[in-house]
């Protein structure tokens, strides 16, 4: 049987064209990013100093620093991670391992996917009502407050605002409200990533555990979670990166711009790096643009630190599977 | 194929016998001399470990098993044979309720393990699976060490000291004929073993729970001939202590290792008898066609 031969030259040419197109796309993307980083580095490095990192905001660019937003970002993102990662993993576990494939589960699933696309400012409005004002609880009065005195092992009410263990209800626009707001923003991302991670665990492993007489929780805890955790940590990295870059929802809940202290407890006023950058870059003076660039460099450094931490956690959970 | 009348489906059940529910497990199969322990002339019939009466199963609206009456004798190897889709794996998976996780799977009739019901809503599947172990088609060791794999199930069911664990590991690995090959590297990853070794590790893992019945769903189909031979030899040994049910597509394998064989076709049990008899003088035309390789 003879078959007409497909012309080899046109096939190889097509292959080359695609290669060049893909390489070009990658080149453009990388160049854009690199030029952005480069211009920031050129503009900002001059203003970077130990003094810049350890000073509070000021009306004069020369003496302004980013201690308050830096500390605020770290506090808020830590709270966000602390809330969003366990909740995201828990929700994913429920949806993938426990929930029956029902219509309700389908609706929940659809909503989670939709929530991931909701503008973050909308979460800010929600958080304003729920966290900052607690649905108007004690509005117009002094908030309900208490603090824990560990040395005397008792709870004080009204609380001592200087204590680390000081809580007031409503929360007001402190770091707790900020962290919870960001947790709302990133929760859909965290849930979806965790679900993907759980789905990627081979069914045969689940069956093996089930056939040996594991309960659902034992299957999840001993087999599925350890296998899925590395991928979940990738989701955590994405979530925290997103949280670190958010300014809009925190502006809505009433984050401050001129904060002259670092947070001391969950109720402390705060500002975050993106808000400070936004504020400085909006001013007319050239000097403020330079320190905004310096703040961006700091923000990137914080981002990389958080990601490195997540990668470290991933590595330490990821035991060698194959010899 | 024309359906076979139920009364003739098993050799063991005379057409005019009592209603199925009343039949006790002693009314079992004539067992070939070779399969019996050399005790006396009168072959004692082993009691049934697993018994089914008019057992039917569905996936959604699709009925996959129709009124199966079958006794699986204790401490013997029972092979399920039949073409793909005949329901033999489904039946196997009902014995340890692995079908529970499949949406739309349901069953009717009775299915008992040593007389206790396995189908009720109140049956504790965790406790059931301690008594009924399972080995799957593809070796599926956990991505953990060899030792951790063996003790996985045992740790779920028993409170064990470290010394007990070591004993369990050795005992289970010896029972699965794997001990000599891995005793020096119990801490190394199970996924580093060969396919045949992995499957024997899965058998050891199932044995470490100390089950009464071991279900095997085509345990050799993913293995090379040498590994298959070692697993088959292992199955022959294990029958002294365990009741084994094995699903296989390989009729030579069924004839080599099993004491009794059940032939399924399109959701019905066509014939169930001593393996020698089923392969040499089947009573049903369909069985004869299948075992002689005329179809399937």
What does this structure look like?
The complex is a heterodimer of chains A (323) and B (296). Helix content of chain A is 65%, strand content 4%. Chain A has eleven helices and three strands. Chain A has a single domain (48-133, 170-317), classed as MetI-like fold. In chain A, strands 2-1-3 form a three-stranded antiparallel sheet, with no helix packed on it. By secondary structure, chain A is mainly α. Chain A has helices spanning 8-44, 50-54, 67-98, 103-115, 120-132, 175-199, 203-211, 216-245, 248-252, 273-281, 286-317, and strands spanning 144-149, 154-156, 166-169. Chain B is an alpha/beta fold. Chain B has a single domain (48-291), classed as 3-Layer(aba) Sandwich (Rossmann fold). Chain B is 31% helix and 23% strand. Chain B is built from ten helices and ten strands. Chain B has helices at 88-95, 125-131, 146-157, 162-175, 179-182, 195-207, 225-238, 251-257, 275-280, 285-291, and strands at 48-59, 62-73, 77-81, 105-113, 116-117, 132-135, 213-217, 243-247, 260-265, 268-274. In chain B, a hairpin with a 2-residue loop joins strand 1 and strand 2. In chain B, helix 4 (162-175) crosses helix 6 (195-207) and helix 6 runs parallel beside helix 7. Mean pLDDT of chain B is 84; it is low at 1-42. Chain A binds chain B through residues 100-101, 202, 204-205, 207-215, 218, 222-223, 227, 319-323, and chain B through 96, 98, 101, 103, 125-130, 133-134, 136, 138, 140-144, 152-153, 156-157, 188-189, 191-192, 202, 205-206, 209.
Give a topology summary.
The complex is a heterodimer of chains A (323) and B (296).
Chain A (H helix, E strand, L loop, with lengths): L7 H37 L5 H5 L12 H32 L4 H13 L4 H13 L11 E6 L4 E3 L9 E4 L5 H25 L3 H9 L4 H30 L2 H5 L20 H9 L4 H32 L6
Antiparallel strand pairs in A: 1-2, 1-3
Helix pairs in contact in A: 1-11, 3-6, 3-8, 3-10, 5-6, 6-8, 7-8, 8-11, 10-11
Chain B lengths: L47 E12 L2 E12 L3 E5 L6 H8 L9 E9 L2 E2 L7 H7 E4 L10 H12 L4 H14 L3 H4 L12 H13 L5 E5 L7 H14 L4 E5 L3 H7 L2 E6 L2 E7 H6 L4 H7 L5
Parallel strand pairs in B: 3-8, 3-9, 6-7, 7-8
Antiparallel strand pairs in B: 1-2, 1-4, 4-5, 9-10
